[in-house]
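Collaborator request, handled under Task 6.
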Amino acid sequence: MPYATARQDPPGVRPAALSPLEHDARITATRTQKIVLGMLGALLALAVAAAAFGWTGGLLALLALITALYLADLAFCAWLVTGTMWRDRAHRPPVPLLELPRWPTFTVLCPMYRETAVLPQLIDAMEALDYPKESLQVLLLLEEDDTESVTAIRGMRLPSTFEVVVVPESRPKTKPKACNHGLLLARGEYVVIFDAEDVPEPDQLKKAAVAFATSPAKVACLQAPLNFYNPRQNVLTRLFTAEYSLWFDLMLRGLQRMDGPIPLGGTSNHFRTEVLRGLGGWDPYNVTEDADLGIRLYRQGFRTGMLDSTTYEEANPEIRNWIRQRSRWIKGYLQTLLVHTRGGWVSDRHFPTFLLVVGGKAIVNYINPLMWALTITYFVFRGTIGDEIEALFPAPVFYAAVVTLLFGNLLFVYTFLLGSARRGNHDLIKYGLLAPFYWLLMSVAALKALGQLVFKPHYWEKTEHGLHLGKGGAA
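Structure tokens returned to the collaborator:
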């Protein structure tokens, strides 16, 4: 598989070759990784068994390690968020959008599967894009077995900029596979993905074209922040909105500020087509192909910038549907973690950043319930087993654990509040206090993700869209 380099190599940027094994999530874990994971599992089981017979050294070491990881994540997130907030404190007047002498051709990929509920909304949103029609190509990517959508679209009078592409039936049946098919047909100098329920701000393509024209060649991708057009539908959508506001408006901008790897969102990624093709497109076996591609871009010497334009989509308002969506995201982050920890870039200064952002974001969902259960058990049954639990926390570990329990949880709730405030959703701020219940839902989704990673690693969990309309479709 060929790999691209930037049109001109910036100083100090030399893309390194990656092997297909490192690139592909087709193999969930290599033999070496399975051995390492098996050894870690055996050590954990041994530590628990030993503790049952009175030797707590293993559990003590494990809890000390977990506490250290929590502290590292706490410090890292605080630095990212506060740094972004401090940088954005000063009021900056809006900058007039530049007019380019020639608007480059843009290809818009719209992958969809059983999306008839939101299809009219998608057509309207793409027609509303303020971009020269002669320089615009919109590809509607449909699956061959989705006869309902194919029939519905072929019965519509579409603008001349639209092309209907039926993706042949093949495995794996994933969104990145459909996008790779569309990439083969793309005529644009730049390519962007919009999901079926997306409503981007009309000037987003122009902003992206100007940003690419005025950025160094190594900036190969621009990520537009995502947010929701139904944030107040119920409590779940309010919390989801707070999370997205924190992630896209504060965390990812912080990663850009530190020149680190940025795991992309699933939509509104704008690419230099030449670079994207050189990278081989998306990994069709990774169910968060966006996050994986963001890391691959970084490893090849390219960078991702944050675009000053928002794409609005549907906040999932139904718990079971939300868990299906979130379990796929967590499974994909675990896939990405496995793919990029068998590659040999541990010497890179941002490898720890990758571990915290991608690995930490997924793995913390498994640790949180255990630590919560341990804390609750201590206070409820302190009279009977309190001494045994206290023995697991010598003074240095105890005080560090107290910091993470009190200040850590307060900080993460506070950042939820900041995300809403940053977007001007002041009426949503109070719902950030419910963040711990939201994290518990994440842990439920994480357990489902782990099972699927083992038994159905490439299965694309369907998410129903259009629920804000009172009807739905699957994507």
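The cover message to the collaborator said: "The longest strand covers residues 136-143. Residues 57-87 form the longest helix (31 residues). Please let us know whether this matches your experimental observations."
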